[in-house]
Every structure is written in C-alpha cells, then in structure tokens.
Amino acid sequence: MNKNPEQKLPTIDALHEALESDNRETAKIVIASLHPSEIADILESVPGREREDLWGLIDAEIEGDVLAHMQDAVRAEFLEHLRPDEVIDATKDLEADDVADILQDLPEDIAGTILQSMDEQNRLRLSSILTYPEDTAGGLMNVDVVAIRADVPLDVVARYLRLLGTIPEKTDNIMVVDRKNKYLGVLPLAELLIRDQETKVSQWMEEEPYIFVSTQTTEVAKIFEQRDLVSAAVVDENGFLLGRITVDDVVDVIQKEAEQAVRSMAGLSGEEMFSPIMASTKRRAIWLGINLLTAFLGAWVIGRFEDTIQQLVALAILMPVVAGMGGIAGSQTLTIAIRGIALGQIAKTNIKPLLIKELSIGILNGIFWSCIVAVVVILWFGQLSLGVIIGASMIINLVIAALAGATIPIILKRYGIDPAIAGGVILTTVTDVVGFVTFLGLATIFLIS
Predict the structure, then answer these.
(1) Helices (H), 72-188
(2) Which fold would CATH assign to domain 5-134?
C-alpha cells in the first residue's frame, strides 16, 4: 500500500539531500525501508539524473517488483538502459502478467531475445499473454492457475495442493474445469478446509462469473466493482479456461484510467512529471496549436462586430462574462457526460432523458443568473437595455452550453475520438462563439442605431 503524499514528500526530500551530499549510505537505508511500489512512485517523482542514482541503490532482488509498479513511460525509459540479461534477472521471480507488461515496453527484437532465453514453460506462458492486446482481459490475465475437475473428492484436491507445494498469490478460489478444460465454476478455499474430505468438488463448487479473453480492461474493472470480485476466470469464446484476473491488476487498471483521464483533459496523454523536455514540448505544442486555432475563431467572431464595440465600450467589458458563464456551465455537463460514457451508463435509450435534464438545468440556471447579472449591469452602467440584452444572451448561451456539453462527448465517442481530449476544446469554442454572437448581435440590433 502506498504512503500518503504527505508522508512521501519528506522521503523524497531526504533522498534528494542524501544524493546531493553524496551520502549514498543514507539514501540506501531510506530506499531499503520502502515497499517496491513506493520506490516506483519516488522514481517517477525525481528528474532523470537522480533516477539513475537511485536505481543503483535498489536491492537487485526487488528490481523486478519496482519495474512492475512503474508507469509505462518511466519504465520504458529504464528498460532502454538495461541489458537483456539484466531484465531477465530482474523479472525471474515475477508473475507472468507482470513480466508481460514489462516485455511490452521493450523493442520487439530485445523482447524476442529475452523470451528465447527463458525455459520453455515460462516462454509458453508469456507467449500466451503477449498474443492478446494489452488493453484486454487476455493482456491483463495471469496464466498461473490451479485447476481441478468437478468429479474428484476434496481429499484428492488437498493432496494435489500439497504436492504442488505452493499456489499462485492471491488465490481465493480454485478453478473447476471438465476433462477438456472447459470452465465450470470455482471451489472456494474455505470449502476445501471445512467440508467432509470424502465429498466431491461438484457438491461445493460455486458458479462465479467469468470474463471473455477479448473483454476490454475498462469493462473488466466494472465487472469487478459491480460484483465485488477478488478474482475471476478468463475464458475463450468456447468457454475454455485460459487464466485468471486478480483484484490487484484491476486496481492498477482503475488507477491508470483515472490518471489518463486527468492528463487527456489537458492534452498531456502519456506524459509524466519528469518526462523528457523535447517529448513534452511536442505534446503540449500540438495542444496549444489546437487551442490557438479556436482562439483565432473567437477573435474573428469579435472582429465582425468591431464597429459595435467601438460605439459602446461596455460591450468589451462584459463579453467575457457571457462567454465565461457558458464555458463553466458547459464544462459541468461535459464532465457528467464523460463520466457516464466511461462507466458505460449512457445508451441510446437514455440519451433523450439526459438531454432534457441538462437543458432544464441550463434554462433554470440561465434565468437565475441572467437576472442577477442584468441587475448588476443596470446598476453599473445605468442602462436598462444593456442589462436586458446581457441577461438574454446569458440564457441563450447557458442553454446551448448544456446542449453542447451533453452531445459533444456522445458524438465524439461515436466517431472513435476520446471525449476527454477533444471535448473541452470543442465546448470552449462553442460557448465562446455563441456567447459573442448572441451578446454582440443583440447589442448591434437593439443598442446601435
């Protein structure tokens, strides 16, 4: 379990000070007191030069665990500097699914070399995982599974487990299959301990949900959350057992999805705090370029009303109010819609009720806040007509913002575009343009003779 950020910051400072003063012994003691996941978090939180120094202080026995807990971008950076034999040594004690994650960050030729250097059993186990996309249940599963038949007595199962000498970590259930390895259900370990050993597995097995190997990892996480699972079987299209997924892997998926969503909303997909400067510059430049184009579009719209603005300076002062309120209202709806899409809660049957709800909120908020803004403007500038116009503009913009915030993510998703990345840019453009056009347009019609 990771420490809280408040607890971790002093550790980072202590390591930084130890490295700055070349006190490697102190740094090594601090590192040795941490869990591999905490070490991985710290390595992600320091610049590249310090990462290399800290890596040299990590016990060789836990290097694989540290690599397994790293973010993909940071792990790939480390793997670039490791020889194939070093990767083999670091990953020799890891579970197959963790090794597969690491190999997927390596160039194909190096990953192939590492696979060929493994014994046949491990090579076959890993190859079976690597054949599936990383974002599916097949890429997430662990092939280390204890499977038994339904027609054997419990005492035979107990002897079999003793013969194995060990069982995979986080095993809460033993998978039950038929003679052809077709998945039937699970035998909870508790049942094996408390039931009559002469009775058969079929009497105590339970029908637990299974997951198809092609299921997306986001859907896997939802199944675990909805059914409070600790582990689940993974089967192919014919129902044959391929492996299992455990809750620790699902937690990693949830965390990765949450971090990806936060980064995507700012156009920083795949970027870490200390990613290489040039790579980060290129990513952000693209995002800034897209926003610049939308800014020019808003400027062009304002330019169409240049004569109106010159005749009434108050319009220039009040324009950001209309556009800003629309942007915030739209962002609220956009967030609700993106969350609904991410959780699989939006379908064809509930799009219309969602639109009605968000439009109703837009109308009510528009009326409420337009009245307040209108009163403020009338008192400020002493013009009743100006207050009425900005109030009307705000109602229109908040209603359009609600409509856009609800529909933009749905449309983007339909065309295979990530709503978290593109939704905010499009929404801002819509609310700015609508806000400027309605406010300045109404002012041109009713205030400028």
Answers:
(1) 72-79, 84-91, 96-103, 108-117, 120-130, 137-140, 154-164
(2) MgtE N-terminal fold (1.25.60)
Q: How far apart are CA 116 and CA 221, in angstroms?
A: 33
> pLDDT under 50 in the chain at which residues?
1-3, 5-6
CA dihedral 65, 69, 72, 74 (to 10 degrees): -80
> How many other β-carbons are positioned within 10 Å of the β-carbon of residue 213?
20
Q: Which residue(s) pair with 245 in the sheet?
A: 232
147-264 folds as CBS-domain (3.10.580)
Side-chain half-sphere CA neighbours of 338 within 13 A: 25
**14-58 confidence digits (pLDDT tens):** 777 777 777 888 888 888 888 888 888 888 777 767 777 788 888
The CATH-assigned architecture of domain 277-446 is: Orthogonal Bundle (1.10)
What torsion do the CA atoms of 391, 397, 401, 402 make, to the nearest 10 degrees?
A: 50
- Structure letter (DSSP) for residue 2: P
C-alpha to C-alpha distance for 201 and 142, rounded to whole angstroms: 24
Chain centre to alpha carbon of residue 44: 17
Integer Cα distance of 426 and 291 in angstroms:
9
Please tell me the total number of residues recorded for the chain in this structure: 449
Residue type, 169: E
Instruction: Name the pTM for this structure.
Output: 0.62
User: Which residue matches tokens 């204890």?
Assistant: 146
Pairing of strands 210-212, 183-188: unpaired
Identify which of 350, 361, 347 has the alpha carbon closest to the alpha carbon of residue 405: 361
Q: Where are the domains of the chain?
A: 5-134, 147-264, 277-446
How far is it, in rounded angstroms, from Cα 187 to Cα 185? 7
Residues 6+ apart with CB under 8 A from 106: 79, 87, 114
C-beta neighbour count of 306 within 10 angstroms: 10
CA distance 96 to 109: 19
Distance (Å, whole) CA 256 – CA 406: 25
Q: Are 68 and 94 in contact (CB under 8 A)?
A: yes
Is the four-CA dihedral 436, 438, 441, 443 of positive or negative sign? negative
Give the number of C-alpha atoms closer than 13 A to the C-alpha of residue 413, restricted to the C-beta side: 18
